[in-house]
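Quick one:
INPUT:
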């Protein structure tokens, strides 16, 4: 990563100047540029702090020459882009990388205790030191100010310190010099003391994190977006909040993902990426054939039949075909999941598939009848898969899973035809429950009562986090969702113990809407963990049945029992019941719902009602 270059002026008739060779400030993995240090996030490098710049092509914040193009047609259409790009590499061969900007701009000096804007320290070019203290390294502000619409600004230290003056009607700058010191009496905010040479009483940072702390001072969000070059301030009505610079609430990615499934998984769609607009304009097979002969002269791999199949599939999957009434019930992302579920159930055998095929899904050779007593249908062995995860936007403070599009902060000042993304190649096992048995179990009064308690708590949490009550999405908590979600968690934990896979290297993908009752467990990292057939081997019926029985036996007991199994609510916002880190929770990267909507009692029952669980009859034998 490199800081932004100084402004350059084009000379008349000359080409644009090449990018300046700027000092490299640090490096991160490509995957982290999507999940941890994406556009708009704060990153600490040694004793400095920076914000990752946006995607604006006009200012060339990202080195596109080092950002390879990747395609995932289904996901690109949903996100209204033409393609995706891997973030620039950060290895020794990288010439540039991703630009960053210094933020926050308020710093303090540990030696002279001065607290002011970084430019007032008059540091030499390229350094972040106090010129009055023999080049003492400066400390970036620990606190920033953000709002739920994604705006970010420096903490208003002057207003915080001079709030008594403001209450008395005194406005403007005091022209004094502020300082920050630490009393050392404790590690709390009370020990962080701010003073000014103008003589106002010294105050601490205690209370700065109250929800209304800044609003009570009359501080408004000014709509600043420091990650976007020359971005004008937006009008904002959100109340600003104080956050720790390193808090996860400062930046949360909004990720959207899709599996590459037929007919889009054989590489042909990538070859046609530059020709889609032209191909869509033709209505007859003959016109398409003539166009292909001209565009792919001498290339026999692009057949008319295959292209026609793609065009027909695109028309069937077109999210624009959904009516407004349907769009409110079934989102475009849910439509992607439904297509994946149907393909996972149908399979895609290895025979007659080329080397470029990215989705191979077959049933096991052995008899799946051993799974019938468990209420589990025939599993599918996904021997080859590809997932693309794209960074659509990001949020601050607001929950990325529950916030509306209005709270999503943009990655660029002007719309771009691409988004940063990463791709994962791996394998997995698709498990599906018997829908008839599942529906009968879900009609139980006791089951409905437990799930209703979770849904009520989750709905309340969503309302508390929402600024507009009319935009609150309904909780997805249903007996089917909670059961499948919890079963996927305990199975991943079982495989991590029995088969030797680290839980963080596995990931769940849930299919729990009406008409779907399954989940996919697959390798979630781009390294070699579980990429050589080991995950697929766990899907053989005999081995899967043993793993499920063992996982269910483990779920009957938790080291936190009886508190865990008897909990009236647990987890974030009380959206869990019998679930904790000792029994059902996973690393955050492995879970689709941030470790909420879990209840192992729906799997194995409770001491008071052992037949509550879906698998209660299995444990009786």
């Amino acid at each position: 990563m490199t800081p932004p270059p100084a402004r350059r002026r084009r000379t008349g008739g000359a080409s644009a100047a090449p990018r300046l060779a700027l000092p490299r400030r640090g490096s991160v993995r490509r995957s982290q540029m999507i999940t941890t240090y994406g556009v708009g996030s704060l990153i600490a490098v040694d004793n400095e702090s920076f914000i990752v710049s946006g995607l604006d092509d006009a200012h060339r914040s990202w080195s596109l020459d080092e950002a390879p193009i990747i395609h995932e047609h289904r996901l690109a259409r949903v996100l209204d882009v033409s393609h995706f790009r891997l973030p620039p590499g950060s290895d020794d061969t990288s010439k540039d990388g991703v630009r960053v900007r210094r933020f926050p701009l308020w710093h303090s000096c540990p030696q002279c205790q001065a607290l002011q804007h970084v430019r007032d320290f008059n540091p030499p070019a390229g350094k972040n030191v106090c010129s009055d203290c023999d080049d003492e390294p400066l400390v970036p502000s620990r606190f920033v100010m953000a709002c739920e619409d994604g705006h970010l600004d420096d903490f208003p230290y002057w207003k915080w310190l001079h709030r008594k003056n403001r209450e008395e009607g005194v406005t403007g700058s005091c022209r004094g010099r502020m300082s920050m010191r630490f009393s050392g009496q404790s590690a709390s905010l009370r020990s962080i003391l701010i003073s000014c040479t103008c003589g106002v009483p010294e105050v601490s940072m205690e209370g700065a994190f109250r929800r209304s702390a800044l609003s009570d001072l009359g501080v408004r969000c000014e709509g600043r977006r420091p990650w976007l070059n020359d971005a004008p301030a937006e009008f904002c009505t959100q109340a600003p909040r104080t956050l720790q610079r390193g808090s996860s609430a400062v930046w949360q990615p909004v990720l959207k993902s899709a599996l590459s499934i037929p007919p889009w998984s054989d590489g042909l769609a990538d070859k046609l990426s530059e020709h889609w607009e032209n191909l869509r304009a033709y209505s007859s097979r003959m016109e398409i054939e003539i166009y292909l002969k001209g565009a792919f002269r001498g290339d026999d791999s692009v057949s008319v039949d295959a292209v026609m199949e793609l065009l027909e599939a695109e028309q069937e999957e077109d999210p624009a075909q959904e009516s407004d009434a349907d769009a409110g019930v079934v989102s475009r992302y849910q439509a992607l999941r439904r297509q994946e579920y149907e393909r996972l159930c149908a399979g895609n055998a290895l025979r007659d598939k080329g080397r470029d095929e990215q989705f191979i899904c077959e049933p096991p050779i052995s008899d799946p009848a051993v799974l019938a007593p468990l209420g589990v249908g025939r599993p599918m062995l996904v021997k080859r898969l590809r997932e693309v995860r794209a960074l659509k936007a990001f949020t601050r403070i607001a929950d990325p899973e529950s916030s509306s599009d209005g709270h999503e902060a943009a990655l660029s000042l002007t719309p771009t035809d691409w988004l940063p993304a990463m791709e994962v190649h791996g394998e997995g096992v698709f498990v599906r429950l018997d829908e008839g048995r599942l529906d009968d179990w879900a009609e139980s009064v006791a089951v409905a009562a437990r799930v209703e308690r979770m849904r009520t708590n989750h709905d309340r949490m969503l309302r508390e986090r929402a600024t507009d009550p009319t935009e609150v999405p309904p909780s997805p908590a249903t007996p089917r969702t909670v059961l499948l979600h919890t079963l996927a968690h305990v199975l991943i934990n079982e495989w991590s113990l029995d088969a030797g896979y680290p839980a963080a290297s596995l990931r769940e993908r849930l299919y729990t809407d009406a008409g779907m009752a399954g989940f996919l467990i697959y390798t979630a990292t781009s390294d070699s963990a579980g990429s050589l057939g080991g995950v697929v081997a766990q899907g053989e019926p005999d081995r899967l049945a043993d793993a499920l029985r063992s996982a269910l036996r483990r779920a009957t007991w938790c080291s936190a029992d009886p508190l865990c199994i008897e909990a009236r609510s647990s987890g974030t916002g009380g959206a869990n019941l019998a679930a904790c880190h000792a029994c059902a929770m996973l690393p955050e990267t492995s879970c689709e719902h941030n470790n909420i909507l879990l209840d192992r009692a729906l799997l194995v029952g409770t001491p008071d009602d052992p037949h509550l669980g879906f698998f209660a009859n299995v444990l009786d034998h």
